[in-house]
Amino acid sequence: MRQSVLRTRKAGMAILPVTMLVGCINIDAPEQPIVIELNINIRQEVIYRLAEDAASTIEENEDIF
Amino acid sequence: MYNARQTIAKRKGVLAGMVAAVLVTGLAVPSLAQRDPAYEAARSSGQIGEKMDGYLGVVGAETQDLKRLVDDINIKRRAVYAARAQENNATLEEYAISAGCQLILKTVPGEKYQAPDGQWHTRMAEPPVRDPRCG
């Protein structure tokens, strides 16, 4: 009987900090809409480096662009 | 004798003319390649649009004809991108996205393009909304 009371107390003490923490965490919904990041690993420098060649490719193949 | 010579000279002239004609038309064909009328119509009516990835997409309800049209051009685009990417030591995806940036910029008012939020936008007189990496 006594042991079970102790066990219950111990369990209660373990849960207490967790419940206190839960009370402190606030998660706000983002104000901006979630944006699809297309291939985030492709960097601006790469796109810039290829820009001139891509422009002439588009001009030379007018029928498919 | 004179007649025979003249005939040969005439024949040479005709042959030279034919060669010239073949050369001229042969050179003129690639630069005259324009959009297929069905492709042009689908673009201007907003049924298809330019995606950020450098390929075409169907904007509204996908019909078999629209899907075929878009697939056909996208396959050709992919082949061109792949060849140019290799030439420039880039990946197919990198090259296609770089082209996509410019293709969206080149849309004319009334045409559709995909904005960074993934939605289809109608091109207006003002510049299109593009991925910040497009520069």
Spans of chain B of at least 5 consecutive residues whose pLDDT stays below 50 are 17-26
Spell out the helices and strands of chain B N to C: HHEEHHEE
Class derived from helix and strand content of chain A: mainly alpha
Strand share of the residues of chain A?
Answer: under 5%
What does the largest sheet of chain B look like?
A: 4 strands, mixed
Which H/E pattern describes the elements of chain A? HH
Question: Can you characterise this structure?
Answer:
The complex is a heterodimer of chains A (65) and B (135). Chain A is mainly alpha-helical. Helices cover 62% and strands 0% of the residues of chain A. Chain A has helices spanning 2-24, 44-60. With 135 residues, chain B is α+β, with helices and mostly antiparallel strands. Chain B folds into 2 domains: 1-33; 37-134, no CATH class. Helices cover 57% and strands 9% of the residues of chain B. Chain B has helices at residues 2-32, 37-44, 64-87, 92-105, and strands spanning 48-50, 56-58, 112-114, 120-122. Chain B has a 4-stranded mixed sheet. In chain B, helix 3 crosses helix 4 (92-105). Residues 17-26 of chain B have low confidence and may be disordered. The A-B interface holds A 33, 35-36, 38-39, 42-44, 46-51, 53-55, 57-58, 60-65 and B 30, 33-36, 52-53, 73, 76-77, 80-81, 84, 87-88, 90, 93-95, 97-99, 101-103, 106, 116-118, 131-135.
Provide keyphrases for this structure.
heterodimer, A: 65 residues, mainly alpha, elongated, B: 135 residues, alpha+beta, 4-stranded mixed sheet, 57% helix, globular
